[in-house]
């Protein structure tokens, strides 16, 4: 398999560093650039040079785990399912908590390359500030792996803790050994050029309690100058219908050239997702599938959508980092999550280049202040990501058997459900995203307007 130029350059630097007796390498490559193939090539070269016996990969989710396994088996022409005779295996970060001492003994007795996909899920440079996953890396991998390779498209954390195995400069910003940003990826035709559409309204009235109605000229002003909450807007019938109409119109346009082009809707809850899916079907006549962790086989639903021509897939957290569906070209972002890391990872789902004629990528969202800020600094590979080291000591009781006295980290919550006119899953949602909140009365009585941010023009 022919490597992309950046992949070849990165592999060369990884091997050079390992040859200089430096065991850890950190690669920042923009989402959708092809980090997994690069990592598989590193493994292949180390095997050919007889420098490793096994390869172990860790990643955030089962869906990503399956994708990594497929890529490694295809690239190395070896079994990679963790069984006897395999070159190695891939496991979720969650499994770090249950792996046995016998498993960890492999790193002590053999030469092992350990690869961490989206390493930013693991926090802590010492046990006192580590989350449960980071602690297991510090205890069982850090001193025993022959080589380690960290991969991330967004190497920072919302809680500003240091990433496990990360090196930080004097200003507490992470230092990466290799950086391949979105601007370069677009110029190299490795990723699609993103077009981010910020949807707004020029006349919004808000009435709270007995107060007189206030009139605002934008959503940002309404959010900051009243009790109106962002979650009210993304769950309002009128605004949902408007943003979906924009996405449907663009997808229909794209499918004139790319018949299998697909759209992604990122919802806030299962109930929200069902409502959006029903709207896509009944209001716009779109073929639609849903996916959530409550499904018995969410990975199969995603894989089926990947291979078919269904127009839309509606997801709550399931399709973000590492999920490879190259035919996705439109996204309507209606998640309540407003962190820059999640925003960029979701954007990356529509940036994978494929063989289609039209390679446009359109990302629709509302003009909330944080989302506007993130859109305007997409061109920065590392935004304001300085970590905070000053933390109170935490009592932690770890053992080498993978058990911990600390609660599990707050990882991504994967929700999924297929919608075909009836439900096959318990739809209760016990998440804390719907805390008690009494929305004020409001109306969007002005004209909708939108600003298109077209980045990295070629």
From TrEMBL:
This is Diguanylate cyclase. It comes from Photobacterium indicum. GO terms for cellular component: cytosol. SUPFAM superfamilies: P-loop containing nucleoside triphosphate hydrolases. SMART domains: DEXDc. GO terms for molecular function: ATP binding; DNA binding; hydrolase activity. Residues 2-196 form the Helicase ATP-binding domain. Gene3D superfamilies: P-loop containing nucleotide triphosphate hydrolases (3.40.50.300). Signal peptide: none annotated. InterPro entries: Helicase/UvrB_N (IPR006935), Helicase_ATP-bd (IPR014001), Helicase_C-like (IPR001650), Helicase_Restrict-Modif_Enz (IPR050742), P-loop_NTPase (IPR027417). It comes from the Bacteria.
């Amino acid at each position: 398999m022919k490597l992309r130029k950046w992949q070849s350059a990165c592999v060369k630097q990884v091997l050079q560093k390992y040859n200089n007796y430096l065991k850890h390498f950190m690669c920042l490559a923009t989402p959708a650039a092809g980090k997994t193939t690069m990592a598989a090539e590193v493994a292949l070269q180390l095997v050919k040079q007889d420098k490793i016996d096994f390869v172990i990969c860790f990643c955030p989710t089962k869906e990503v785990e399956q994708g990594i396994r497929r890529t490694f088996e295809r690239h190395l022409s070896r079994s990679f399912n963790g069984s006897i005779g395999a070159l190695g295996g891939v496991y979720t970060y969650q499994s770090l908590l249950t792996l046995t001492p016998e498993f960890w003994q492999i790193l002590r007795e053999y030469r092992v390359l350990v690869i961490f996909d989206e390493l930013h899920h693991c926090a802590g440079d010492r046990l006192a500030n580590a989350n449960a996953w980071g602690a297991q890396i510090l205890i069982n991998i850090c001193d025993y792996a022959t080589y380690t390779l960290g991969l991330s498209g967004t190497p920072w954390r919302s809680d500003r803790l240091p990433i496990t195995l990360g090196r930080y400069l004097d200003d507490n910003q992470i230092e990466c050994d290799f950086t391949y940003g979105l601007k370069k990826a677009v110029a190299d035709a490795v990723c699609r050029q993103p077009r981010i559409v910020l949807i707004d309204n020029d006349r919004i009235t808000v009435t709270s309690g007995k107060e007189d109605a206030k009139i605002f000229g934008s959503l940002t002003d309404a959010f900051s100058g009243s009790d109106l909450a962002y979650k009210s807007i993304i769950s309002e019938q009128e605004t949902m219908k408007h943003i979906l109409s924009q996405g449907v119109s663009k997808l229909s346009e794209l499918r004139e050239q790319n018949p299998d082009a697909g759209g992604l809707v990122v919802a806030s809850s299962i109930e929200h997702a069902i409502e959006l899916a029903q709207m896509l079907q009944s209001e716009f006549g779109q073929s639609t599938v849903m996916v959530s962790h409550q499904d018995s086989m969410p990975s199969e639903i995603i894989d089926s959508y990947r291979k078919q021509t269904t127009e839309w897939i509606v997801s709550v957290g399931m399709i973000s980092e590492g999920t490879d569906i190259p035919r996705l070209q439109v996204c309507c972002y209606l998640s309540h999550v407003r962190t820059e890391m999640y925003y960029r990872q979701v954007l990356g789902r529509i940036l994978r280049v494929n063989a289609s004629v039209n390679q446009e990528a359109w990302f629709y969202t509302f003009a909330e202040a944080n989302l506007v800020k993130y859109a305007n600094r997409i061109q920065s590979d590392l935004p304001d990501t300085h970590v905070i080291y000053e933390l109170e000591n935490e009592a932690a009781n770890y053992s080498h058997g993978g058990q911990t006295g600390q609660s599990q980290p707050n990882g991504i919550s994967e929700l999924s459900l297929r919608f075909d006119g009836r439900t096959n899953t318990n739809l209760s949602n016990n998440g804390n995203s719907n805390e008690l909140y009494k929305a004020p009365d409001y109306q969007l009585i002005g004209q909708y307007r939108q600003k298109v941010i077209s980045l990295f023009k070629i």
